Amino acid sequence: MELTFWGAARQVTGSMFLLKLEDDYQVLIDCGVDMANMSESMPLYPGASFPFDPTLVNVVLLTHAHLDHSGKLPNMYRDGYEGQILCTSPTMELTELLLRDSANINQRKIKAYHKKLAKGIDPESIPFDPKNLYNANDVQHTLEQFVPIQFHRRFNIKPGLHVTFIPTGHLLGAASILVEVEENGETKKLLFSGDIGRNDYPLLPDPEPMPEADYIICETTYGNRTHQSIADSTEEIADVIQRACVDKPGRLIIPAFSIGRTQAVIYIMHKLFEAGKLPPVKIFADSPLAQQSNHVYERMSSFLNEEAKEFKKEYGSLFNFETLKYIEQTKESEAISNYNEPCIIISSSGMMEGGRIQHHIRANMENSYCTILMVGFSAEGTLGNRLLNHSGSIRIGTREYPMKANIEKTDSFSGHGDVYDLLNFVHQQDAEKLKKVFLVHGEEEAMKDFSEQIQSEGYKVELPEKGQTFKL
């Protein structure tokens, strides 16, 4: 069989791996959007928005809901794919929210595209092709093809092909996937890490031990970095709120992904509130998608850790408390700029490449009484990354803005495991028995550093290029 790396190769986003068996049966593991480079850098297959023929793919396996793993699923069906998508039930529900939200964003992009054409702007200068943007009908068709699979169930896709979804933390429903292939009287096992979570992360269970495999495909987002302790996240948030909203007093803006990071942040604030440690400042959760995601977390709380289950049992809700206000309408969101009291604004997206957060950043860049707290990873090329590395000003669109707001960063809320969590994932495999470790989903420097570490321990390692195929 052959494994081709069509995404997350020497970069963080766009996970997409194609496994072709000897009988030509094809399995696609994840189908993500490249968040750092929205234009396709590989030659595309004729009539498709992929560098391979989607009509030849037989089944898709989805590790979790985030768009850099799920965001191109509707394109698969538009380009002729007719198979199913296998994932856990929480992943199915969260992916629905993200894909419907993406379709709405695409609709706005298409309208803007035609307005630019009407003004005589050269279509070649517009950084996307509207033909590649899916709509609500495409999403609905995609959702009808989802098949939820229980954690730990060894599911038989066809004779000689089994898959098992194993909890890995990171996000509600997220899984590593064990793929077992029987060919020529021999069984080969491939373990796809997905995004590896952390122990003791708010709301989520710890990553579970992984079975032995012949090959592992391992993410390396933080392949050369350690995280701050999760245990410190509650105190850290309380300290930032005190400095930004009480000592100053001003406003605290937290860009956070609507699904995953926002739930962790709001849950920690709820815990502070119930403990009497949260200052009496208004908290605006400015993301309708985050509110919908909260409902999924509440409804599927059986998938959460024991602490979260007990907290919900005691207080009736994981997220709702007195000083928290959800913002739904765009006008309400814009009106927050006129709110003169100290406040906290939690808005998406985490990398600031879209969503309401851009309005809040633009409105507060020159406000020295504003603190922007970055709580997650921002890929190169994104506004979030530029904000972290600004030198007195920052460009949004065609305009350069002076930067007077205070920028702070914490990785205690990162849903990705750090280098020690990644090493733990690899160390569960016997270096003498494991045939190969493929490193993906990381910046090249992190991959190289992590590669050197595990090679020194006897593991055989590959850092695939995009489009590179390996015979297994």
From TrEMBL:
<dbReference type="InterPro" id="IPR050698">
    <property type="entry name" value="MBL"/>
</dbReference>
<dbReference type="Pfam" id="PF07521">
    <property type="entry name" value="RMMBL"/>
</dbReference>
<keyword id="KW-0378">Hydrolase</keyword>
<dbReference type="InterPro" id="IPR011108">
    <property type="entry name" value="RMMBL"/>
</dbReference>
<dbReference type="InterPro" id="IPR001279">
    <property type="entry name" value="Metallo-B-lactamas"/>
</dbReference>
<feature type="domain" description="Beta-Casp">
    <location>
        <begin position="262"/>
        <end position="387"/>
    </location>
</feature>
<dbReference type="InterPro" id="IPR022712">
    <property type="entry name" value="Beta_Casp"/>
</dbReference>
<dbReference type="Pfam" id="PF10996">
    <property type="entry name" value="Beta-Casp"/>
</dbReference>
<feature type="domain" description="Metallo-beta-lactamase">
    <location>
        <begin position="13"/>
        <end position="257"/>
    </location>
</feature>
<protein>
    <submittedName>
        <fullName>MBL fold metallo-hydrolase</fullName>
    </submittedName>
</protein>
<dbReference type="InterPro" id="IPR036866">
    <property type="entry name" value="RibonucZ/Hydroxyglut_hydro"/>
</dbReference>
<dbReference type="Pfam" id="PF16661">
    <property type="entry name" value="Lactamase_B_6"/>
</dbReference>
